[in-house]
Amino acid sequence: MTTAFDPVDLAGTRLANRIAMAPMTRSRAEGDTRTPTALVAEYYAQRASAGLIITEGAQPTAIGQGYPNTPGLHSDEQIAAWREVTDGVHERGGRIFVQLMHAGRISHPQVLGDGRHPVGPSPVAPAGQLFAGSGLIDFVAPRELTADEVRETIAGFATAARNAVEAGFDGVEIHGANGYLIQQFLSTNSNLRTDEWGGPVENRIRFAVEVVKAVAAEIGPERTGLRLSPANTYNDIAETDTAEIYPALVEAIDPIGIAYLHVTEPVPEVRELTLALRKAFSGTFILNPSTDGPTGPDALALIEDGTADLVAYGALFLANPDLPARLKAGGPYNTPDTATYFGGDHRGYTDYPAL
Fold it and tell me: Which is catalytic among the residues 43, 67, 180, 341?
């Protein structure tokens, strides 16, 4: 029987175990340069015993930033700063992918600065508010990307992926979940386009497919992963055809041969779809399961029964930097501060002590 503590081959990269650290927004980057700090390097090095670390989202271009003090991967300074992170993880025997996250309409001019305005598939403002550094402010309607700008955005993902490899990352995870730009193209309430990027399913998946193709062509499919969150309504997303669009998307990307598909479940009811996507995808399957509270030790059974190849942990990894050892020993576990942790990939700002 396969267990969470067995090694696994990830498209040619050997992982020491099947416990992944989920991507979690930390907002620890330098504000002006959007560069990771020494604290970021220490934070990830502490967790190098994960089979795979997937970092917080890094914006592939300046216009892709969604929250204050999040890191980028579009400047030489950022590449150099990330190198300190990857060196620290590799020195401890770990493997680390960076998540490339374009927030799209989930942003604000106050966050972007320099006269920039959020962009999206269509000029539809999301409901709700955004934390912009000094407090919560209402979202604004994004500027609709032109067809040329859509192509430029795809190219921006590929360039950032090349920068990631230069920075020493073992690969990249494309963020197609949680209401950010890629899911905005998939959604029926944020994508009202009538050109090749909107309308029927085959058009609304096109942006995601083209980003995956571009990244895989730039750095190799074996260094490329994709994260999806079917039926997730976070960030004012509405999906009227979840059961149709995600199988179509996975069918379209599977021939590319990417390293992994990472699915995060917003509700237990999507498990049937999760299993269908797992069956349709030929590569490694990572699951961040729907749970009542932070993912716990019982989720390891999902590896034993074949539901997933790896299980991704979020909050429990924040509170327990040596989580794989604790899971193997049956505990004990530090309790995550769920008052400031919102689940999935989050906007929690509480930092845990260095351990």
Answer: 180
Q: For 31-69, what is each residue's pLDDT tens digit?
A: 789 999 999 999 999 999 999 999 999 999 999 999 999
Q: Identify whether the C-beta of residue 7 lies closer than 8 Å to the C-beta of residue 14.
A: yes
pLDDT of 133: 77
pLDDT interval class at 338 (50, 70, 90): low
pLDDT of 344 > 80? The answer is no
- The pLDDT tens digits of the residues spanning 140-167 come to 999 999 999 999 999 999 999 999 999 9
180 is an active site residue: yes
CA 337 vs. chain centroid, Å, equals 21
User: Number of C-alpha atoms within 13 angstroms, CB side, residue 212?
Assistant: 27
Bridge partners (DSSP) of residue 310 are 286
Global pTM value: 0.95
Q: What is the average per-residue pLDDT within 320-347?
A: 77
Query: b or e along 134-160 (b: 16 or more beta carbons within 10 Å of the residue's beta carbon)?
Result: eeeeebbebbbbeeeebeebbbbbbbb
Task: List own/partner pairs for 150-155 with CB under 8 A and 24 or more apart.
Answer: 150/197, 150/207, 153/61, 153/102, 153/119, 153/181, 154/207, 154/210, 154/211, 154/214, 155/214
